[in-house]
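Appendix B: a complete holo record

For completeness, this appendix reproduces one full record from the ligand-bound portion of the collection. The bound molecule is NAP. The inputs are the chain sequence and the ligand SMILES; the output is the full three-dimensional arrangement of the complex, encoded as C-alpha cells. No fields have been trimmed.
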Amino acid sequence: MPTTDLAGKPIAITGASSGIGRATAIAAARAGMPVVLGARRLDKLQEVADQIAAQGGRAVAHAVDVDDPESSAAFVRRGIEAFGGLYSVFANAGYGLEGSVQHVTDEQLRAIIQTNFWGTLNVIRPALPHFLERRQGHVLICSSCVSKVGLPLHSAYSLTKAMQDHVGRAMRIELLGTGVHVSTVHPIGTLTEFSARTADRSGGSRKALRTPKSMMQTPELVADRIVSCLRKPIGEVWTSTKMRLSLGLLTAFPSVGDWYLARRLRRSAEQE
Ligand SMILES: NC(=O)c1ccc[n+]([C@@H]2O[C@H](COP(=O)([O-])OP(=O)(O)OC[C@H]3O[C@@H](n4cnc5c(N)ncnc54)[C@H](OP(=O)(O)O)[C@@H]3O)[C@@H](O)[C@H]2O)c1
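The structure of the chain with NAP bound, as generated:
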C-alpha cells in the first residue's frame, strides 16, 4: 500500500487535552495535518492549539463531551467547517476504573460504557458519511492492550476496550474497498493523567494490577505509531510486541492465562 502524504489532511482528535490525544495532536500537526482538538477542558485544549501554532501548525480547540451525541456531532461539523473537510477522526477520549465485578456499581458501569464505547461511536458515526462521500478517510480508535483479556479488578474498563476493538475490526472489514481505513490502537501502560484519574475515580483501590514503572511508555511513542499508521494504514497499532505476543498466548491457552493473572494479582496485593 502506498504511503499517504498527510500534509493538509485534517484530523479531529477527542481527548486532546492531555496524554495520548495531546501527543498525537502535536505529532499529527508536525506531519502537516490541521488538527481539531476536542475534550471538555477548553483551557487545556487552547494550550495545545497555541503550542501547535507556535510550531507553525494549524489547530482549533473545541469543547466536546463525547457522552453526548449532539455535542460529538457538532465537534465533527466544526472540524469539517474549520478546514473544509476531514481526513481522519481519532476517537481517543476515555478513562479507567478499578473494582471487582461485585463492587462496581451499575451507575459506574453505565458511565464508563457511555464515555469509552458510546463516546467512540458518537464521533465516528457523524464523520463516516463525509469520509464515504469523499471515498477517503481514516477512523482511529484508541482501545488498549487489555481489549484482548478481561483483567481482574478492571473488568469494566477492559470490556469497554473490547467493545471498541470489536467495533473497529468489524468496521474495517465492512468498509473494505470504500477508501476508508479503520485502525484500533492498543497501547500498554502509558505515562499520562490516566492512572491518577483512575485511582481518584475508584477510591484508590491499591490491589489492582499495575504496569511496573519501568515498562510504562511515553504518550509521544504511542503518538509516533499512530502517525505512522495514518501514513501507512494497518489494522491494529501495537506499541509493544512482547505484550502483543503474551496476550496471544493468554488467549490461546486460557487456563495458563488465568494462572498467570492470578499470580500477578497476588503479587500486586503482597506489595501493598
Ligand atoms: N494511559 C494508559 O496507560 C493507557 C493504556 C491503554 C489505553 N489507553 C487509552 O488511551 C486513551 C487516552 O487516555 P490517556 O492515557 O491519554 O489518559 P488521559 O491523559 O487521562 O486523557 C484522557 C482524555 O480523555 C478526555 N475525556 C475523558 N472523558 C471525556 C468526555 N466525556 N468527553 C470528552 N473528552 C473526555 C480527557 O479530557 P477532559 O477531561 O478535558 O474532557 C482527556 O483529554 C483512553 O481511551 C485510554 O483508555 C490509555
